[in-house]
Amino acid sequence: MLFRRSTLRLASLCTHVSTQRFASTKTLKETLQEVIPAKQEQLKSLKAKHSQKVIGDVKVENIIGVPALKRLLPAAPGGKEIIAESMLWLLLTGKVPTEAETRQLSRELAEKGDLPTYVEKLIDGLSPSIHPMTQLGIGVAALNHDSEFQKAYESGIKKTEYWTHTLEDCLTLIARLPALAARIYRNIYRQGAEAPAIDKDLDLVGNYTALMGYGANKDLTEYLRLYISIHGDHEGGNASAHTAHLVGSTLADPYLAYSAALFALAGPLHGLANQEVLRWQLAMLKELGGNITLDNIKDYLWKTLKSGQVVPGYGHGVLRKSDPRFIALQEFCDTRPDLLKSATIQLVKKTYQVAPGVLTEHGKTKNPWPNVDAASGCVLYHYGLTEFKYYTVIFGVSRALGALTQLVWARALGLPLERPKSVSMDTLQDMISKGA
Ligand SMILES: CC(=O)SCCNC(=O)CCNC(=O)[C@H](O)C(C)(C)COP(=O)(O)OP(=O)(O)OC[C@H]1O[C@@H](n2cnc3c(N)ncnc32)[C@H](O)[C@@H]1OP(=O)(O)O
Ligand SMILES: O=C([O-])CC(=O)C(=O)O
């Protein structure tokens, strides 16, 4: 099912992404109303005619890549990097939004972005020692108090109407994430400092940085625009998106489904790795002092591996080369001389020179190359956002784009309750010995 679902999404992206930039001003919902019926028919026909057909492997190079997206998708006014809104539009509809559509979506999200008071109170009541990701998951789950989907379900809507109410919730959740995530930041690291009001003329990430207290830092804002758009989606099988799909398949509302996803993202083998990379790098810098040579980094890598730990930021469940998102973040640094002087950014670059060789020699991982987490935190650190336990929260603001898009499509296509079979080891042994 997962393979079928992600393949469908890839096909839909590849078919619709074109350079067309006519000045449409349709809303996101109107665009989806046009796109969904054709996809529903396509799925019906695929299932009826070809359900047993093997369609071959999908390679990374077959997928529309980060550089192409950077060329195609509208940026913020005056900015260069992709913004969350244009990425969300593309993920949801398979179409490249016009400038006007992007701005209109930014405004819609800004208008929905304020947190309800009950969530503010809930978050303010949490101990600052509770991990920021735990706080984010709690806040997102509590937002289901206002779920349109839940209300509509209780009123007895038809299955064909599920997706529109799901879309409403997903947009409201994406809109509210910056205020929620920034409140957690200010509570834990800025003694609950007051935030500015949401600016209705600003994009989602522009507001997020302003709410965190970094509005004046235009470089950090541009970096976060790129960061949040490229961390948004990674097929359907990654642990966070898959968790949202699994929980959503029970028809739990989008807030509950995404809250569960955040707790998958909070594991160190998944999204928490970006926190772990910084922790590991700072420990290395402390131990090596000013003596950062390639040989010393190699020794440190071996020390990590021999102590039974993983090298954070390296390896991947499906990628078998350097993560294109890692490369995109490196390219961001390469165009900015101030970043190239940073000790943590230099350490990422030097580690990249030796870690693949060490991991290959170690001989366990199927992929000795860096993933996105190897590079994402060092730039935040350089720009003064040094509280690395917070980094996965930023990932969590981003992953909503992909995970919630999948939820809308799962409802539009009427995908079933997910329930893999489970057998005991004895049954398995029995089946093997009977040659089943
Ligand atoms: C956004 C993201 O989620 S990207 C991933 C972020 N996570 C990390 O960076 C953590 C470090 N990386 C890892 O732990 C792994 O590479 C994962 C979790 C990402 C992928 O796991 P798998 O698909 O099981 O990888 P793979 O099949 O290559 O693993 C085979 C063996 O190599 C080991 N291995 C994989 N990556 C590493 C690594 N970076 N350092 C040391 N050992 C590793 C695995 O632990 C496993 O060991 P085992 O046989 O003793 O169980
Ligand atoms: O795809 C995966 O398994 C992990 C990953 O890179 C992501 O979720 O962004």
Automatic annotation (TrEMBL):
Which compartments does it reside in? Mitochondrion
Q: What keywords were assigned to this record?
A: Mitochondrion, Transferase, Transit peptide
Look up the record and report any one GO term of the cellular component aspect: mitochondrial matrix
**GO biological process terms on file:** carbohydrate metabolic process; tricarboxylic acid cycle
Q: Which residues form a coiled coil?
A: none
GO molecular function annotation: acyltransferase activity, acyl groups converted into alkyl on transfer
List, alphabetically, the Gene3D superfamilies matched.
Citrate Synthase, domain 1, Cytochrome P450-Terp, domain 2
Checking Pfam families in the record gives: Citrate_synt (PF00285)
| Family per similarity comment | Belongs to the citrate synthase family.
Q: What is this protein called?
A: Citrate synthase
**Which lineage do the record's taxonomy fields give for this organism?**
Eukaryota, Fungi, Dikarya, Basidiomycota, Agaricomycotina
